[in-house]
């Protein structure tokens, strides 16, 4: 079963797993708002937002950025996908998207680019870890359509 969550989102209010009961849900975890890879990924999911809706799925983006940073990211790139703020890393850890990373020979804790597909039954159907951005949103859409 998918771990429950309830966190603040861009535009105010909060979002929880229970809000999407009976629907397919795509959660894409990205390292940081308004960085090149994360921007491309969010734009790709936004581009396919209506196709996901037609397939009966909702897409949510999650990072540890503040709600204010998420709103600025959404507005700057005209994103239609709701963006969730997990500053305490609770959801990131529950879904395995927080862990050890390395760059330039240095290891540190951070967000591992991950996508989780949850079926209408509330069970995790598929997990993509260490996602490569190019073509990823299309691949996830194909998986949603195949459910």
From TrEMBL:
* Keyword Membrane attributed: no
EC code(s) of this entry: 1.11.1.24
Q: Which reaction does it catalyse?
A: a hydroperoxide + [thioredoxin]-dithiol = an alcohol + [thioredoxin]-disulfide + H2O
User: Is the keyword Oxidoreductase assigned to this protein?
Assistant: yes
Q: Which cellular component terms (GO) are annotated to the entry?
A: cytoplasm
Superkingdom classification of source: Bacteria
Q: Which PROSITE patterns match?
A: THIOREDOXIN_2 (PS51352)
Q: Which InterPro entries match?
A: AhpC/TSA (IPR000866), Peroxiredoxin_BCP/PrxQ (IPR050924), Thioredoxin-like_sf (IPR036249), Thioredoxin_domain (IPR013766)
A biological process (GO) of this protein is: cell redox homeostasis
Any one GO molecular function term: thioredoxin peroxidase activity
What SUPFAM superfamilies does the annotation carry?
A: Thioredoxin-like (SSF52833)
The segment(s) forming the Thioredoxin domain are 1-147
Sorted keywords for this record are:
Antioxidant, Disulfide bond, Oxidoreductase, Peroxidase, Redox-active center
How this chain assembles, per its entry, is: Monomer.
Q: Which PANTHER family does this entry report, sorted A to Z?
A: AHPC_TSA FAMILY PROTEIN, THIOREDOXIN-DEPENDENT PEROXIDE REDUCTASE
Q: Which protein family is named in the record?
A: Belongs to the peroxiredoxin family. BCP/PrxQ subfamily.
**Described purpose of this protein according to its UniProt entry:** Thiol-specific peroxidase that catalyzes the reduction of hydrogen peroxide and organic hydroperoxides to water and alcohols, respectively. Plays a role in cell protection against oxidative stress by detoxifying peroxides and as sensor of hydrogen peroxide-mediated signaling events.
Name the record gives this protein: thioredoxin-dependent peroxiredoxin
Q: Which species?
A: Bradyrhizobium icense
């Amino acid at each position: 079963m998918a771990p429950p969550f309830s966190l603040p989102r861009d535009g105010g209010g909060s979002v929880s797993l229970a809000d999407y009961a009976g629907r397919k849900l795509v959660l894409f975890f990205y390292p940081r708002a308004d960085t090149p890879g994360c921007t491309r990924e969010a734009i790709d999911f936004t581009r396919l937002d209506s196709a996901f809706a037609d397939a009966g799925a909702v897409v949510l983006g999650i990072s540890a950025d503040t709600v204010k940073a998420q709103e600025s990211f959404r507005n700057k790139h005209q994103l239609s996908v709701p963006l969730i703020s997990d500053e305490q890393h609770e959801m990131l850890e529950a879904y395995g998207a927080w862990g050890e990373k390395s760059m330039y020979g240095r290891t540190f804790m951070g967000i591992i680019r991950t996508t989780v597909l949850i079926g209408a039954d509330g069970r995790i159907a598929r997990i993509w870890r260490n996602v490569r951005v190019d073509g990823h949103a299309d691949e996830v859409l194909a998986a949603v359509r195949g459910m």
